[in-house]
Amino acid sequence: MAAGEEQGSSPAVFYFWSIQPFFLPGVRPAAERNRTGRYQKEIFMEQNRQYYDKIAAGRRISDQRKRLGISRQRMAEYIGKAEKYYADIERGYCGMSLETMIGIAGTLGLTLDYIAFGEEEEHELPKETKSIMFYLDNCSEKRRKKAVELLQVYLSE
Q1: Averaged pLDDT, 125-136
Q2: Is 33 helix (H, G, I), strand (E, B) or coil?
Q3: Any idea what the Cα angle at residue 29 is, between residues 26 and 31, rounded to 5°?
Q4: Three-state DSSP class for 28?
Q5: Among residues 117, 135, 13, which one has the least CA distance to residue 74?
Q6: Would you place residue 33 in the very low, low, confident or very high pLDDT band (cuts 50, 70, 90)?
């Protein structure tokens, strides 16, 4: 052993580990824990967790896609996913990330609540309006402006 070295851990390291563990990632003060040692946030999340039925969600997505007259291949392109993966979502074989669900909802004009749980909003747009919005969202800026002009002329008569 070299001069000045002590055997075992240094007092500074011992002090850090024993007195201030909440500075370490993933370690929280004991005051946040309940009697069983579980964190209150974890218990809250467990009690309020909702699961969605993948088969029912896929059916709702498929029905809306068919109503709008969009093919599976085209829909997969719109959301930037492989066609097989999108088909598996519609069949309920696999779940989807929140990002994917948001892409599908935006493309089909659905809400996340409706896709996941089948709960529709009170002020639902008519399917014709959703169809028009879909086509306007998926065309160039120049064509969108022309379509809006034509629609305004047609509806003002």
Answers
A1: 84
A2: strand
A3: 135
A4: coil
A5: 135
A6: low
Q: Rounded to whole angstroms, how far apart are CA atoms 157 and 152?
A: 9
User: Comparing C-alpha atoms, which of 140, 136, 84, 83 is closest to residue 107?
Assistant: 136
Contact status, residue 38 vs residue 46, Cβ threshold 8 Å? no
Per DSSP, the three-state class of 39 is: strand
CB–CB of 81/100 below 8 Å? Answer: yes
Mean pLDDT of 22-32: 49
Q: Amino acid identity, residue 3?
A: A
- Judge if pTM exceeds 0.85: no
DSSP 97-117: -HHHHHHHHHHHT--HHHHHH
Buried b (16+ CB within 10 A) or exposed e, 109-125: bbeeebbbbeeeeeeee
Contacts of 67 (CB under 8 A, 6+ apart): 127, 131
Are the C-beta atoms of residues 1 and 7 closer than 8 Å to each other? yes
